Amino acid sequence: MTRLKSWSELKRRQFAGAWNACVPAGDMGRMFGLSEAGVYAVRREFGLPDRVMPRGRAAVLRDAAINKFADHRRCLMCNETFRSDGPGNRICRGCKDTPAWREGQTDYSMVLPDGRKGEGR
Fold first, then answer.
1. Is the pTM of this model over 0.85?
2. How many other CB atoms are there within 10 angstroms of residue 70's CB atom?
3. Are 73 and 40 in the same domain?
4. Distances (CA, A) of 10 to 7, 15, 32, 42, 99
5. Which structural domain range is residue 92 located in?
6. Model confidence over 1-34: pLDDT tens digits?
7. What total number of domains does the chain contain?
8. Which of 34, 42, 95, 100 could share a disulfide with 29, CB 3.0–4.6 Å?
């Protein structure tokens, strides 16, 4: 890219710094007057490594996708409200840590819509 030959050392360092800080390619394009594809082409020409999303940010995105059904639900064993990961998660962590749960020896109850306790198995 002949255009890069006119870039100052400062501009090259700014580009590398933004790349290493995982600034999104679209934002970098606006900062440096490039398209997103141009940002990746410059990255290759400068010999910058492929970047991997920081673990913290990746975990946040993954958790957001997984937890879109997270909600507060009542535990089917102890009837306490807990933060559930989704509709299939109906037993709280405290109850899952009990020997009865781990050994499959549970008789649980559930709360009926009118507030009464229903019988489990």
1. no
2. 15
3. no
4. 8, 9, 12, 15, 63
5. 69-114
6. 547 778 999 999 999 999 988 888 888 999 999 9
7. 2
8. 34
